[in-house]
Write a structure and sequence with these properties.
The complex is a heterotrimer of chains A (about 400), B (about 290) and C (about 325).
Chain A: H1 9-24, E1 34-40, H2 47-66, E2 75-81, H3 86-99, E3 104-107, H4 111-124, E4 128-130, E5 145-147, H5 152-165, E6 170-175, H6 179-192, E7 198-204, H7 213-220, E8 227-231, H8 235-246, E9 253-255, H9 262-268, E10 276-279, H10 295-309, H11 315-334, H12 339-347, E11 352-353, E12 358-359, E13 375-380, E14 383-386
Parallel strand pairs in A: 1-2, 1-3, 3-4, 4-5, 6-7, 6-8, 8-9
Antiparallel strand pairs in A: 10-13, 11-12, 13-14
Helix pairs in contact in A: 2-11, 3-4, 5-6, 8-9, 11-12
Chain B: H1 2-33, H2 40-56, H3 61-84, H4 92-113, E1 130-132, E2 135-137, H5 139-161, H6 163-173, H7 175-180, H8 185-211, H9 218-232, H10 237-258, H11 263-277
Antiparallel strand pairs in B: 1-2
Helix pairs in contact in B: 1-5, 1-6, 1-8, 1-9, 1-10, 2-3, 2-4, 2-8, 2-9, 3-8, 5-6, 5-8, 6-8, 9-10, 10-11
Chain C: H1 2-6, H2 8-22, H3 30-55, H4 63-80, H5 85-107, H6 112-132, H7 134-137, E1 143-144, E2 148-150, E3 153-155, H8 158-181, H9 183-193, H10 195-200, H11 205-231, E4 233-234, H12 241-254, H13 259-276, H14 283-297, H15 302-314
Helix pairs in contact in C: 2-8, 3-8, 3-11, 3-12, 3-13, 4-5, 4-6, 4-11, 5-11, 8-9, 9-11, 12-13
The chains are: A alpha/beta (about 400), B mainly alpha (about 290), C mainly alpha (about 325).
């Protein structure tokens, strides 16, 4: 069993008893651990998000503790598997707040889960750092809610800017069934006009679909399409990419940051060549110039994760890293785990270098990333490369 | 226009062939035991995932595939032995719940033995698309179609020509009579789980190079296979194949000509419509209810 | 009077009321209250579904669809169009009842597995519509729902909800028990044993099946509306096929044709994932194993199996089968 088996009820019961004795004995209350709560989609359709996120949190909580903890106190991770189910996320969040009495919550792999718990964290007044994508999480700004990943709107903008520079104006959209896919589709349709992009075909595919040639054939036969954008994550985009090559669509294919991991190239194989997508620098850690200020962070995280879990990094795990580090940074700054102070400290984070980019939080921006945090990548020779 | 139609047809056939294999698995078990085995999709998953991991340790396809199929068949036999057999005589709904429990159990087991990530499998023979009448098809799709055809032929030989096959068929027609005729009904039941697990695994291996595979790939394929089996008429081999192909083609045609967002809904509306007019599916057994 | 109190029906209802009244002693924080409310809501659905599955002998693999329609109907009317929540709930319930009646007629002509398929298909279609029409439903990310307010009084907080849901559960159980004991209920049970037989003695099988279907849909819809207001958020997860399966499992797990069994099934299967959360990676496997194990060793469900065990200990099994009404 893992060392940070924090969910074990029995152990927690023992810990509670121990804590009571400690109080009676008048021992230092300061030795109580700082509790980081989390709920992640470790199983279910979004498991490929939740799995690296959970691993990252466990790995780094262990590392921080080994280095002496925070404010002289150990960190304790309390994590639950919400399986992509908003109802479960809500219940587990209640459990984190009421039962486990955590100090800060870092979690929420998907937008649906995140949105479902926002009323709870707002009412309980507890800082919550979400790891989900959609822009609705932080727009309008909610006092206690922050988020780590770039928004889907930024991804659309980054892609459209790249399309503009390649003189594309007529674009086809194909998107999946999930919350991420639908939300990104909506955002892209919203901002397309701003970049002079016309969306002239708009197709979707279903959960667990095994073949998208029908939708792509339709797009192929739509006159004037200059590029295709696929909003989606999981296996869908890999199948889209393979089918795309199979039926011989020749215009460039863009994917979203939802497939920003080596896994995508592995799954799509040779068909992935030439695919472009916006992603954090994490994916191209090794090819960043030595002078890049982000290099140290992303190379460090990559080495740590890959040597520990023997599997490749994804930007998703990176978001969990950013969330945990920002929470820790804020607790250090606040000098306590007082929830209001920690919240203020998170809001005051400036110039914090994470795997996703530089975070500059403010009272009006609870994500703190700008478009420069995104890099346009292209698959070349079976690897991600920076588009110059 | 016609190239487009051909493309939809080819795609529908490939998808439908997979549904057909899964549906056949449903039908075989249903015939032997009257159980709808909701863990059928998990056999598909085990086939794909086991092959991926065997290839990863360096086995060639020729060795990995039979081993993966055998592994799935063993799981099928174990399912019958340890979950279905002890519950003999339980109501149909109870048995359904047991198989649903089994499917959750197997999925959970898969996350521990393997992982929760998606895995790709190399196509058996390259992935250069083949052009047919303006439409394209992957070599792997030909494998899917060819193997499905071979499986269907083999099954019809098995049920029509071999003693064991005939015994299984007899059991499905009348369990008591079969037993009186000296057929070991319990053995038939046992073997039917192994056989349909093997079929599911074959489907899972064939499709993995096209769609990738993961621990929960069986959920949707199981659901679609069930729908296909019902459309064709539960318990009918021909029905399972026709139902699978029909469902696959309906889906791709709906996606191509109507609405890709509603293609699954359209497929289900058509299934409902068929059931309203043919309450036992296209090829199902008809006849009055026993009082 | 005393005899009436001692009858399993009134006695059971009384016992349930006592459990609901005393449970708060064990609920030491809001999280426990939350679980209790979820149990109550699921139990209401299951009590209704049990009328269909346990008594009329008709399976439904699409009841999450009705639950979802209730939840989304309330969410859309009350939150998007600003209707008073109670009016929204009432309208939604009537609409669901009408829908269930309309589709129930043709669907319930199907038998056994074909009925399972048809109800499953119905659930899938409802699910597809809800995830696709994101303009109204918010799509896969779901939609926020206003709190339930009744004439200026806002129902908020786990404790108030606990009492409301507890009371409604009692009403639901009372309704179900009365229905089962009524002539219509006896007709339903006759259907279960033999549809043709029931027809022969003059029972209009189709009409009674549709009635059970509509009632169970209404229970699900009301619970859905309440769940939406309580959670303050609905996502399509509650409409999905897996939720339908969960509901059927609760009914069968607790014991078919046992109203209290349905309540117990809902309670066990709602709390089980919370207990298993401690096992991390093994959670899913254990959940499946518990499901299989219970059904293998107690094929009639927990409540009837235990009741039987209890009865046979007290006395030699008397004639007939002890049903755990």
């Amino acid at each position: 069993m893992k060392p940070m088996q924090s969910r074990n009820n029995f152990k927690r019961g023992l810990a509670a008893v121990a804590a009571t004795f400690a109080l009676i004995a008048g021992a230092a209350v300061a030795q109580e651990p700082i509790k980081i709560g989390s709920f992640l989609s470790v199983t279910g359709g979004a498991a490929f998000l939740g799995d690296p996120e959970q691993k990252t949190l466990e790995l780094y909580v262990g590392k921080i503790n080994a280095a002496g903890g925070v404010l002289g106190r150990k960190l304790q991770l309390v994590a639950y598997d919400s399986a992509g189910d908003a109802e479960k996320a809500r219940t587990f969040t209640k459990r984190l707040i009421e039962q486990d009495k955590v100090d800060v919550i870092v979690g929420g792999s998907t937008t649906g889960e995140t949105m479902a718990v926002i009323p709870l964290v707002e009412a309980a007044q507890i800082p919550f750092i979400s790891l989900a994508g959609a822009v609705v999480i932080i727009e309008p700004v909610k006092k206690w809610v922050f988020k780590m990943p770039h928004t889907d709107r930024m991804a659309c903008e980054k892609i459209f800017i790249d399309m503009q520079s390649r003189k594309f104006s007529k674009v086809a959209l194909i998107s999946g069934p999930g919350g991420f896919d639908k939300s990104m589709r909506g955002q892209c349709l919203d901002v397309a006009k701003k970049y002079g992009i016309d969306v002239i075909a708009d197709e979707t595919y279903g959960a667990g679909d095994t073949d998208m040639t029908a939708q792509l054939t339709k797009i192929k036969n739509t006159a004037g399409v200059q590029a295709v954008l696929n909003a989606g994550f999981g296996q869908g985009p890999a199948i889209v990419t393979k089918n795309y090559r199979q039926i011989g669509v020749t215009v460039p294919l863009y994917q979203s940051h939802g497939v920003a991991s080596k896994d995508f190239i592995k799954l799509a194989g040779a068909a992935a060549e030439g695919v472009r997508l916006p992603a954090a620098a994490l994916l191209v850690a090794d090819s960043l110039p030595q002078s890049d200020p982000q290099r140290a962070v992303v190379v460090g995280y990559t080495k740590e994760y890959e040597s520990h879990f023997k599997s490749e990094v994804s930007t998703f795990g990176g978001h969990a890293y950013d969330g945990l580090m920002i929470a820790v940074e804020a607790i250090k700054k606040a000098g306590s785990t007082d929830k209001a102070k920690v919240r203020d400290a998170i809001e005051g984070i400036r110039g914090f270098m994470g795997t996703a980019g530089v975070f500059n939080m403010s009272p009006t921006d609870h994500m703190g990333l700008d478009l420069s945090a995104f890099r346009m990548l292209e698959v070349k020779g079976g690897n991600w490369t920076l588009v110059k | 226009m016609s190239a487009q139609f051909t493309q939809y047809l080819l795609t529908g056939l490939t998808v439908g062939a997979i549904y057909a294999l899964v549906a056949l698995g449903f039908s075989i078990i249903f015939n032997a035991s009257n159980v709808i085995n909701f863990a059928q999709g998990e056999f598909v998953m085990i086939g794909g995932m086991a092959t991926v991991s065997l290839i990863a340790v360096g086995l060639p396809y020729l060795l990995a595939i039979p081993l993966a199929v055998a592994a799935a068949a063993l799981v099928g036999l174990a399912l019958e032995k340890f979950a279905v057999e002890p519950a003999r005589g339980a109501s149909v709904v109870t048995l359904i719940i047991i198989t649903i429990g089994a499917s959750i159990f197997l999925r959970g087991l898969a996350t521990i033995i393997w992982d929760k990530r998606f895995h790709a499998l190399k196509p058996f023979t390259g992935d250069a698309p083949i052009t047919i009448a303006g439409a394209t098809i992957l070599p792997q799709s030909l494998w899917v179609l060819g193997v499905t055809l071979a499986v269907v032929l083999a099954l019809s030989w098995f049920f029509g020509r071999t003693l064991l096959g005939k015994a299984m068929l007899a059991t499905s027609h009348n369990r008591l009579a079969a037993q009186l005729a000296g057929i070991n009904v319990r053995m038939v039941l046992f073997l039917s789980f192994g056989l349909s697990a093997a079929l599911g695994a074959v489907a899972g291996i064939l499709i993995a190079p096209i769609t990738t595979t993961s621990y929960d790939v069986g959920v949707m394929l199981g659901l679609k296979g069930f729908a296909a089996a019902m459309l064709g008429g539960m318990g009918s081999g021909v029905g399972a194949v026709v139902g699978g192909i029909a469902l696959g083609i309906t889906e791709t045609m709906s996606a191509g000509y109507l609405s890709s967002a509603y293609k699954d809904a359209i497929a289900f509306v058509i299934i409902l419509a068929v059931l309203f007019f043919m309450p036992s599916g296209l090829f199902g057994k008809r006849g009055g209810e026993r009082v | 009077m005393l005899a009436r109190l001692a009858s399993p029906r009134t006695g059971g209802l009384l016992a349930l009321a006592v459990v609901i009244a005393l449970l708060p002693l064990a609920l030491t924080n809001k999280y426990f209250y939350d679980i209790a409310v979820l149990v109550g809501l699921n139990a209401i659905v299951c009590v209704g579904l049990n009328l269909l599955i346990g008594y009329a002998g008709q399976i439904s693999l699409g009841h999450a669809g009705f639950f979802g329609l209730g939840a989304y109907g309330s969410a859309i009317l009350a939150s998007r169009y600003g209707w008073p929540p109670l009016a929204a709930m009432l309208t939604t319930t009537l609409a669901v009842a009408a829908l269930a009646y309309l589709v129930g007629r043709p669907i319930l002509r199907l038998k056994g597995h074909y009925l399972a398929m048809a109800t499953l298909g119905l659930g899938v279609i409802i699910f597809m519509v809800i995830t696709t029409e994101d303009k109204y439903t918010g799509g896969p990310d779901g939609i926020a729902v206003v709190p339930l307010s009744i004439g200026g009084f806002v129902l908020q907080g786990e404790r108030i909800w606990y009492w409301v849901v507890g009371a409604l559960l009692l009403v639901a159980v009372w309704l179900a028990l009365n229905l089962i004991e009524s002539p219509a209920g006896r007709a339903l049970r006759a259907l279960h044993s033999s549809e043709v037989g029931a027809e022969v003695v003059g029972i209009n099988a189709a009409e009674h099946k549709v009635m059970a279907f509509v009632i169970s849909a209404v229970f699900a819809s009301v619970a859905g509306s309440l769940a939406a207001h309580y959670s303050g958020f609905v996502t399509p997860g509650k409409v999905a096929f897996l939720h339908s399966i969960e509901l059927v499992t609760m009914v069968v797990f607790g014991g078919m044709a046992s109203t209290f069994g349905a309540v117990v099934g809902a309670a066990v299967l709602t709390t089980l994932p919370q207990l298993l959360a401690a096992f991390e990676d093994y959670e899913m496997m254990l959940f499946g194993a518990v499901m299989m194990g219970t059904m293998i060793f107690m094929p009639r469900g927990v409540v009837p199996s235990l009741a039987r065990l209890f009865q046979s200990r007290r006395q030699q099994p008397s004639s007939g089968e002890g049903s755990g009404t």
